Structure prediction request, 176 residues.
Amino acid sequence: MASVVAACSTEPAATQDSGAAGDAAAIELRNVTVAAQLVGVTPDDPSSAYGEAALSFTAVNTADIGIDRLLDISSPAAASVTIGATDEQRVIEPGTSIAAGQPVENIDSRADGTDQPFSVTLDLIDGELAPGTSIPVTFEFEGAGELSVDAPFDVFEPGELTNTRRPLPPVITPTP
Prediction:
């Protein structure tokens, strides 16, 4: 099992390879982060409480042959982890990736939804986790087995991240 601190970069946070040359089990995890919305803070109750936390990551199948599949995600910091993905979205073809909470950058887009990001939510146990700390997260893959990372934890205010997309420019009709 690999255990590495996750970072916000293009470098892999964790890599798992089953060891055999040309084997189908080679997964890299990138940009693994957890963000939760701050809820429940009042002047009478200064303790912090978080709503569901969103896990973001990209899992890349670096193998030359064979597919892998995301089976499960768990964390000792969460009462439960919910993966909002179809079975097809959990499959990682060789040389492609799957992602939660961030764009998927596969060159070969397909209509089955595998090139679409999905959501992963954590029901955090400790409502007083401090932003800037890390949360241990374990990913289980069908071929590569388990990969564990320490995902950076951040908090946002209600409504702070509601519209992060840039608006499209207005449609302009050329004059003849």
User: Anything to note?
Assistant: The CA atoms of residues 3 and 114 lie 27 Å apart. The two ends are 65 Å apart (CA to CA).
